Amino acid sequence: MQDRRSDRRAERWAIRKGLRQVSKGRTASCGLPGGRPDGSVVLRVTDATGTPAAATTGATGRIAGFAGLWTCGSVWMCPECSVRIAAKRSEEVAKVLAHHVGTGGVPLLVTLTMRHHREHSLAECLKALTKGWGAVTSGRSSQRDYDQGLRGWVRALEVTRSADNGWHVHVHALVVVEQTMSDDAVDAMTGSWFARWSAGLVRAGMPAPTEEHGLDVQRIESAGLSETSAAWSRYVCKGLATEAVMGSTKAARGTSRSIYELMRDATVGRRLENPDTGQVIQLADLHARHLLREYEELIRGRRQLTWSQRDHDLRNDVEDMEDELTDEEIAAQDLEGEDVAVLPRETWPIVEPRAAELLHVTERHGIDAARAWLDDLGVEWWLPTRLTDDRRHGTRPGD
Ligand SMILES: [Zn+2]
User: What is the pTM of this model?
Assistant: First the structure.
């Protein structure tokens, strides 16, 4: 578990570094020193038992991290920040669902997808999404849903890219209905959602999807209710964080790439092996770079997660809900814990390419091993002398 987690982290860090050549936005600066006045970076370690991080990563024991790095807070474009944001959001959603399950609500997982061709631009797909989802969630029909027993919803926007069919924009919604709502009434409601969704897409100039491919509704069996709703929360909030785990999207996985996979292909590159010589090369996919730039430009400012509003906001009446943090605030939260070593400004560029390895050593073998690793690397580092509290609210490097 630990090694797999370390490998994935190493890949995320490598992608984030590579994105500095690709991103035209904030993500180009993510992970650069900028949190502390002198530009130093602090290696820190904490006992993860019982922390949210442990709950989401499945890790046990130590978790290591760096303080003093600037974070971009992009849920759409950053492999590292999006993981942090997804972990926090899925906790919030799971808590809200648990509240509703405990008070006579029944969750559904509804996925709405479009029919599209390779020629449709991402801009067209996103415009259609706005029209389609707007048709589902506003107007008289929407009021009727609430009258019939709909409590509310939280929806996530997801984008993937297929080699055959181009951009694929779809919606996952966690929907809560009253227990008293009959199966027929639920079917009628989701059927009406699909009709409204489809009409909205057509008004935006897209072809009408077939219900078979455009709508997927999953219900929880009463056994395993809380486990399933927690798993759904992670699934809906995953963003870039993980590959699809539940297989409920109908896009053919073979030709379809997640944004994370596009990023990996655009930066770390694709592994190509010459079958005759066995020689392996890593080749950055320039088409993927081109696609990512289109995506970054168009997705900026969109919300990944939105909730039904006012009286229907599912977060109403949930006890102990913390004030909602912005994506940027979540990403900027440094790991709390014990300072292991201070890496001065000049040291960081040498450590950064192997930062994931240093974190792994710290977690696996402890503080002394981490310091020995730095000595072996031959870089200058300092023992922490005081508890630093100037680690938040960094300025963006270059600002
Ligand atoms: Zn970031």
Answer: 0.86
